[in-house]
Design brief:
The chain has 11 helices and 14 strands. With about 300 residues, the protein is α/β, with parallel strands linked by helices. The strands form 3 sheets. The chain has an 8-stranded mixed β-sheet with strand order 4-1-9-10-11-12-13-14, with helices on both faces. The protein has a 4-stranded mixed β-sheet with strand order 3-2-7-8.
Length: about 300
């Protein structure tokens, strides 16, 4: 039987530009521009759907052309959208990314204003269906109050992606405000983990996250792999070899791989290995979600 997974958070149009040569500031640079569909939650849901999970996405879309395109594309990928909402006077999310000629991100801008409409009340109206899920995944594009609602009301294992240094503070703040702080899994990159815990190293950051209620910590280290830790174990896995075409979506794929591994009943360290395989699949693609990820992982 397929696992049912609810994914809550951002969905947007991705505009990804990759330079043909070295970046020249304050000038027009030749390169290649890809238009696709993204958003951390949407990317995770898409990856999980490709891997065979029964996936539903809970997001807010605008009433503009982009909102319709995102909605229709998600449905084409087998993602259940019936718990999402379109707000006709809102602007759909846009993610604009600039990569160097090696595929590494130089800078990005995320316009995710519409996601502010995901409030505790919005989630509470959908709580019955959310809690029928086997797993729940959220990104920190949603606000701190919505994250806290999930921490206190989600009955299935909850996985959260930190998204960015600024937004990752929301999960730490929410955990500190909970009477009984508990989070099944948190995925951050090294910069986010150190910043939100005011630590000097990712190992120190992991311990501080465990101390505030996170049960399983995954800290991605870019080309150095991933550090994962729970109360009993810690592991450092090197990144898997492969040509880097584009880094957009690799972190999202990592968490999707982790969740997928949990649906298969794999132990904690092995879940990180599945995350690395999913991330590598995305790094080798020009798209934020590699449409061939199932052929690579399964």
């Amino acid at each position: 039987m397929k696992s049912t997974i609810s994914v809550i958070g951002g969905a947007n149009v991705d505009l990804s530009a990759t330079l043909a040569d070295a970046f020249i500031a304050a000038d027009s640079n030749p390169g290649h521009v890809e238009v696709g569909y993204g958003g951390v939650a949407r990317n995770i849901a898409h990856n999980l759907s490709l891997l065979g999970a029964q996936t539903q996405l809970l997001t807010i879309l605008g009433g503009d052309l982009f909102g319709g395109l995102i909605h229709d594309f998600c449905k084409q990928q087998g993602i259940d959208m019936h718990l999402s909402e379109r707000i006709h006077d809102a602007r759909s999310g846009i993610y604009l990314c600039l990569n160097n000629h090696g595929g590494e991100m130089i800078a990005a801008v995320a316009d995710t204003e519409a996601i502010r409409a995901i409030t505790p009340d919005w989630l509470a109206k959908r709580s019955g269906e959310i809690n029928l899920s086997d797993y729940i995944v959220a990104d920190t594009n949603i606000g701190e109050d919505a994250i806290r609602w999930l921490l206190e009301n989600a009955t299935a294992p909850l996985f959260i992606d930190g998204v960015s240094t600024t937004k990752a503070h929301r999960i730490v703040n929410a955990l500190r405000k909970c009477k009984l702080p508990y989070l099944h899994s948190l995925k951050l990159n090294q910069k986010e983990a150190v910043a939100v815990t005011d630590s000097t190293s990712y190992t120190e950051a992991a311990q501080r996250l465990l101390d505030i209620g996170v049960q399983h910590v995954y800290i991605t280290l870019g080309s150095d792999g991933v550090y994962c830790r729970n109360a009993a174990e810690e592991w450092l896995y090197p990144a898997l070899p492969g040509e880097v075409v584009n880094t957009t979506g690799a972190g999202d794929a990592f968490l999707a791989g982790v969740v997928y591994a949990h649906t298969k009943g794999l132990a904690f360290p092995q879940t990180a290995q599945y995350g690395l395989m999913a991330a590598r699949a995305t790094l080798m693609s020009t798209k934020a979600v590699n449409p061939d990820i199932a052929n690579i992982l399964l």
